[in-house]
Amino acid sequence: MPLVKVPAPVEPLWHEWDRKAQKSGLRHTVYAVNGDQYTGEWRDNLKHGKGTQLWKRTGAIYKGDWKFGKRDGYGSYSVPDPVTKEYKKVYTGWWKNDKKCGYGTTFYPGGEYYEGEWSGGQRSGWGRMYYRDGSIYEGQWLRDRPCGQGMLRLPNENRYEGGWKEGKKHGPGRFFYLDTGQLFEGVWAADIPKYGTMIDFGRDEAPIPTQYPIPKV
Predict the structure, then answer these.
(1) For 214, which DSSP code?
(2) SS3 90
(3) What residues make up the domain containing 21?
(4) Which of 35, 41, 65, 200 is most open to solvent, judged by the fewest CB atoms within 10 Å of its CB?
(5) What digits encode the pLDDT tens for the residues 55-108?
(6) How many C-beta neighbours within 10 Å does residue 83 have?
(7) Same domain membership, residue 209 and residue 109
(8) Cα 151 from chain centre
């Protein structure tokens, strides 16, 4: 019985088109319907690797690492100045699952900025915050607020060292009044000192010492 040669199955043309449409490995520029633009690397049709995203509505730009369609790794996020139109960095640091995570620096309006650790897009861990009035907080954070142990230094160099909870002084702590040469050591609750002792501390070097020293007990 003669052998019959069976022709190889013909692959549908749409399979080839689908493979060509899949962006993977190489750099591509893709425009969304709303005008957003991404230029960078892809994997399995998702942003993956190094790339730059431009959001048309806000003009914001992200440059950095991506992982399966989300910002993940190291990158910077910038927005245009409403007056000069020049780009200003808002955040530079590490990301995970499209949120700030790890060490990074965020710049706020008015010149304030934070440098330190993040988790889930919020300040969490150790960090230092520079406020508009010249105050500086350095210490532990939780859910975007000082929480744990930290120090707040005021513009006049007076400072508080001690416990914090939900952004307020809470627990044992010490307040150094370096302008008058005094030290208060006690316990706070929701920013209010509940009890403690006040003593002279460097009174002879203080710029505006109290008229009379605190009597020793």
Answers:
(1) P
(2) strand
(3) 15-70+91-97
(4) 35
(5) 999 999 999 999 999 999 999 999 999 888 899 999 999 999 999 999 999 999
(6) 6
(7) yes
(8) 19
